[in-house]
Design a protein that fits this description.
This protein is 41% helix and 17% strand. The longest helix is centred in the N-terminal third of the chain and has 24 residues.
């Protein structure tokens, strides 16, 4: 059948309009925020690659390697993750400077696993004012779970207050007449965990705590604080410190002949970056709280998730220490971020990133302790709510008792 030129032009115009109407919904399904294109998702973070908390730098290095592995296998829905990881030296002013660069110059979609309570405190109001997702913070400060006042910030770690409360309840049950000495970092991190201990002890706590000492991250050592605490006559020591100072405190307490029941908080309990420098023989009997599998524990030797993690370390992050539990933590945080991005589909706006982060339901990552899962909601941003006490044997952390929740 032949059409006149005018009729043919009319038909072509109709066909074009139909094609556009079909393509329009498909195109509309893609919603992009800053840092996103058909080929890329740009994330930002700050890490203490230098300074007093540089032992944590391995977290950022592992995550760069993990996202490279994801990218090499096709990325997230065809988009590659571009993680811009900058050094802040564990310095709040430097963190502010670097985050402003990430938000205003690099225009990242979201911030991911920025490390440290002081650094995150310094950027907290800024990123919420800018409405930038501030996700899976590498700090357990309780204030990150405040969706009403800070709807763009969500932590990752078990909260420090919950951790402190679990230690307190353990002591009330197992050592009710304990004389407790406490060393803590003089900032929001240290004070937050201290509050958890005191809240957990309740009215009796005033009598049980016989001494407290603080340190600044700029201090060269905590030796003098340990001597002071030892002199208090305490038979129980709660050590609320980051890796460098945790190692110093463990070593000094042992070398000075002080033999209290010694509890070291989770962030200062890595075998590789804390106990080895302190001396494994000087670390026997320490207690801590865990919420993910310890790579040094032989019970996980043939665990499929641990075998997969070790294979990753051997292929993608050979310079990383397989004894350092921080590398398991980093892997879990990266997996969680990938889950959030997958849930976003093609709606990669900042608003939907936060919506999906607040909609995690029973996410059972295999490297978490058995029986544990991650959960969040629009009114509860605390992803991790469980943990298990563990004792150091001289070679490994050995869990004991049941997995405890923050409501226990």
């Amino acid at each position: 059948m032949k059409f006149s030129p005018d009729r043919r032009a009319a038909l072509l115009a109709v066909a074009g309009a139909v094609a556009l109407s079909v393509a329009a919904p498909a195109a509309a399904q893609k919603k992009y925020g800053p840092g996103v294109s058909d080929t890329e998702i740009k994330l930002g973070q700050t890490m203490p690659y230098s300074g007093p908390a540089s032992a944590y730098g391995t977290i950022g290095k592992l995550q760069l390697a993990y996202f490279k592995m994801i990218n090499d296998s096709g990325g997230i829905n065809g988009r590659k993750i571009n993680l811009i990881s900058l050094d802040d030296g564990y310095s709040p002013p430097k963190a502010v400077e670097q985050v402003r660069r990430l938000v205003e110059q690099d225009e990242v979609l979201a911030l991911f696993n920025t490390l440290g309570t002081p650094s995150n405190t310094a950027i907290h109001k800024y990123v919420n004012a800018k409405k930038v997702p501030h996700l899976l913070l590498a700090t357990g400060a309780t204030k990150w779970n405040d969706p009403k006042n800070f709807p763009w910030t969500m932590g990752f770690n078990l909260s420090y207050q919950a951790e402190g409360a679990i230690y307190a309840k353990y002591l009330l049950k197992e050592k009710p007449n304990a004389k407790i000495a406490i060393l803590y970092q003089n900032d929001d991190y240290g004070k937050d965990l201290l509050k958890g201990v005191k809240d957990g002890l309740g009215a009796k706590g005033a009598k049980m705590i016989v001494a407290e000492a603080t340190y600044e991250v700029s201090d060269p050592t905590v030796d003098s604080q340990i001597v002071t605490l030892q002199g208090s006559g305490a038979d129980t020591f709660i050590n609320i410190t980051t890796p460098k100072f945790a190692a110093q405190a463990i070593r000094k307490a042992y070398d000075s002949g002080w033999k209290p029941l010694h509890i070291v908080n989770n962030v200062g309990a890595s075998v590789g970056s804390v106990l080895v420098p302190a001396g494994l023989d000087k670390s026997v009997g320490l207690l801590t709280l865990e919420y993910y599998k310890d790579p040094n524990d032989p019970q996980w030797k043939d665990d499929p998730a641990m075998l997969e993690w070790r294979a990753f370390m051997g292929r993608q992050y050979r310079e990383g220490d397989p004894k350092d539990a921080a590398n398991v933590y980093a892997y879990l945080a990266a997996q969680t971020m990938v889950q959030i991005l997958k849930q976003c589909g093609n709606d990669l706006t900042r608003e939907n990133v936060m919506k999906q982060a607040a909609s995690i339901k029973s996410l059972k990552l295999p490297l978490l302790l058995p029986g544990m899962a991650l959960n969040s909601s629009p009114t509860d941003f605390a992803l991790v709510k469980q943990g298990q006490l563990a004792r150091f044997t001289g070679t490994l952390w050995q869990g004991f008792g049941e997995v405890l929740s923050t409501s226990d």
